[in-house]
């Protein structure tokens, strides 16, 4: 079984002007990426959100699907949300994974733009099959900041379609990345 984790980063990320911001959580990102994480066998899915009010919103959404009306309405979603963990920053996320796995994860960053030291999906898929622990970072807003990109051990190639437009929702991008790296 692969030892792959994902994290949805809400800070530090960029706005459309390239300025560093914190983004708000969205219900769909939380449960849709959790469902994809469960489908593709990820070991965990982290929400990196330093804002305490936004953390409370995350807890309320998770509670709704795991213990509230959402559990009765859709029990399968409760199972997916067991994958979700809330952390304030990347360091805390790495610490939790390292504690659980006994080794520090390799940090994989995603971007809609080509980065230095970019590896293909096929190359990363092979590395994952060879073993090790991996944490794939997805940025919200207009993507991860240069600071976050610089923390990468691996920069994953951008997802490219047939057209020139290249601004997928993070939910779509995560599902595509998981399928290309861990799918059958």
Describe this structure in words.
The chain has about 180 residues and is of the alpha/beta class. It has one domain (about 5-180): 3-Layer(aba) Sandwich (Alpha/beta knot), CATH 3.40.1280. About 45% of the residues lie in helices and about 20% in strands. The chain has eight helices and nine strands. Strand 2 and strand 3 (about 20) form a beta hairpin. The radius of gyration is 16 Å and the shape is globular. The model has no long low-confidence stretch (mean pLDDT about 95).
List keywords for this structure.
184 residues, alpha/beta, Alpha/beta knot, 7-stranded parallel β-sheet, 9 strands, globular
Could you tell me the strand content as a percent range? 15-25%
Biggest sheet: strand arrangement: 5-4-1-8-6-9-7
Radius of gyration: 16 Å
Strand tally is 9
Secondary structure class reads: alpha/beta
CATH class: Alpha Beta
What do we call the CATH homologous superfamily? SPOUT methyltransferase, trefoil knot domain
| Multimerization state | single chain
Mean pLDDT: 94
Shape descriptor reads globular
Poorly predicted ranges (pLDDT <50, ≥5 residues)? none
Q: How many domain units?
A: 1
Q: So, CATH architecture?
A: 3-Layer(aba) Sandwich
**Share of residues in helices:** 40-55%
Number of helices: 8
Distance between the termini: 13 Å
Order of helices and strands: EEEHEHHHEHEEHEHEH
Largest sheet, in brief, is:
7 strands, parallel
CATH topology term: Alpha/beta knot
Task: Describe the structure concisely.
The protein has helices spanning 27-39, 52-66, 69-73, 75-81, 90-101, 121-130, 146-150, 170-182; strands spanning 3-9, 13-14, 20-21, 44-48, 84-87, 106-109, 118-119, 133-139, 154-156. The protein is of the alpha/beta class and 184 residues long. The longest helix is centred in the N-terminal third of the chain and has 15 residues, at 52-66.
